[in-house]
Amino acid sequence: MPIHIISLVLFAAVLHASWNALLRAVGDRLWSMTIMCVAVAGASVVGALFMAAPAAASWPYAVLSAVLHVGYNLFLVRSYRLGDLGQTYPVARGCSPILITLGAALFAGEHVEASALMGIGLISAGIIALALSKGRLAVPGLPYAVGTGVFIAAYSVTDGIGARLSGAPMAYTLWMCALWGVMMPAVYIGLRGVRSLVTPRPGFLTAIAGGLVSLLAYSTIIYAMSWAPMGAVSALRETSVVFAALIGYFFLGESLTVRKLLACAVIALGTIVMG
């Protein structure tokens, strides 16, 4: 991949780890996630109005991706309710690069070079190793963490195809995020009611900031996937688990063991191999 794409994806990885840490640190994560989506929707609509509309062929992918993002939100919130950032985040993110590589090969006809496959494998192995405890995956709510990874793979492949068909990847991203940002509050209201959503709570501004950061991070990723193989971009993005481990250690009081540091080294090696 070109160096500027690698740099953009690593920047997005830092942003992604940051907003996940914000979400993990708050009390009512479903409410916070929904407020983040409201912020995403508002910013996306404003930005999209200044851009030409994406091609008609990409709209079904935008709608499907928005639905998949809602499923991802619900599974992510549930997994964070049951486990630490340093446990659930690596499992969710570690599943997705290989799944995305397979999905891109099946549905987008992508071919990945052997060195890229080796890098993807190293990154995925290092990510999963971050969640290991005494040689096994001791992750509370493991099905939700794995389910989150499946949703990540599904919407990533969907958006990779949609962005390429759109002729305007950034406009596609903004309209997809606007749809997602409308659907998530509707789901929340169905679960808890309008009053629960609009009642002022501490952490409102933090959730707004997290939403804007997540929008910037994912817009960068979709741009990268419109120019580079989806699986490789995804694997690089998932180096965010290294930043999440550091954030969890310095700001959330989570442990950072020698095993985790070695796993981070494997992820870094995979990034070098792929680059």
The unreliable regions are none
Rounded to an integer in angstroms, the radius of gyration calculated over CA atoms is 18 Å
Order of helices and strands: HHHHHEEHHHHHHH
Mean pLDDT: 82
How many domains make up the coordinates? 1
Main sheet: which strands, in order across?
1-2
Structural class: mainly alpha
Q: Give the strand tally.
A: 2
Shape: globular
Report how far the terminal alpha carbons are from each other. Answer: 6 Å
The percent range for helix content is: over 70%
- How many helix segments? 12
Strand content: under 5%
What about the largest sheet?
A: 2 strands, antiparallel
Mind explaining what this structure looks like?
With 275 residues, the chain is mainly alpha-helical. It has one domain. The chain is built from twelve helices and two strands. It has a two-stranded antiparallel ribbon. β1 and β2 form a beta hairpin. α4 (85-107) packs antiparallel against α11 (240-251). The longest helix has 25 residues, at 142-166. It starts with a helix and ends with a helix.
Features:
275 residues, mainly alpha, 12 helices, 80% helix, globular
Give the structure's gist in a few sentences:
By secondary structure, the protein is an all-alpha fold. It has helices spanning 3-25, 29-48, 59-82, 85-107, 114-130, 142-166, 169-192, 194-198, 204-225, 230-237, 240-251, 258-274, and strands at 132-133, 136-137.
Q: How does the SSE layout of this entry go?
A:
Layout: H1 3-25, H2 29-48, H3 59-82, H4 85-107, H5 114-130, E1 132-133, E2 136-137, H6 142-166, H7 169-192, H8 194-198, H9 204-225, H10 230-237, H11 240-251, H12 258-274
Antiparallel strand pairs: 1-2
